[in-house]
Amino acid sequence: MSDARKEQLAKALEQVEARVRAACEAAGRSRDEVRLLAVTKTFPASDAALLTDLGLDNLAENRDQEASAKAGEVAQLRPEAKIRWHMVGRLQRNKARSVVRWADEVQSVDSVRLAGALDKAVLAEARPKLDVLVQASIDGDPARGGCPLPELDELAAYIARTGGLRLRGVMAVAPLGQDPAPAFEKLALAAEKLRRDHPGATELSAGMSGDLEQAIAHGSTCVRVGTALLGGRGLASIASGSPGSAR
Q1: N or C: the chain end with fewer CB closer than 10 Å?
Q2: Is 239 left (phi over 0), alpha (psi -120 to 50) or beta?
Q3: 10-residue block means of pLDDT along the chain (247 residues)?
Q4: Which residues cross the membrane (predicted)?
């Protein structure tokens, strides 16, 4: 099954790569400017390991409990792989200590209180600085997370003053059921302002399976792709042979 799954993933990766290359060309940008982040949530560690075999070394998760166990499993499956793990889902402050044990980057920092919890956890773990992105709310929906755009400067300034965090840029999720282009345009302006105040904050994480082309057209440097690479959730059960494996 692993050979068949690897072939399946390779074909999907080829298709995603073609989309990213075409979007970069259309935007007059180099392919090297956009990082492909594979979102492996709900899929087994075996899939993540196969993706590393295909050359993907940036993997992302949405939930700490799943990610913590999966990162350990993948390390056992591919001890030689140099994987960079990203937390892209909403994060509660009480999970900060756990997250800093496996994540190299947290893209979903949306409040000073969460930033403070992560900073404290990094210092307590005596680990290198944690790369973070501020998550901006570009649809105003508090249920989806994100810092309101007028408060972005304050959050970024706080992160820049911490001893354990490194501000790398901004992340956002496009509004549901709407043309994402206007939201991505608004995000691009916010990211540009952030870079003026914090020159090291060069990352703009925007775009997923359904809207990566629009995001790249508006300057995204990181697209977070799950479904287009790994398929629907049911595929995870098929790949592992166990109905209970799709978490």
Answers
A1: N
A2: alpha
A3: 92 98 98 98 97 97 96 97 97 97 98 98 97 93 84 97 98 91 95 96 97 98 97 52 31
A4: none
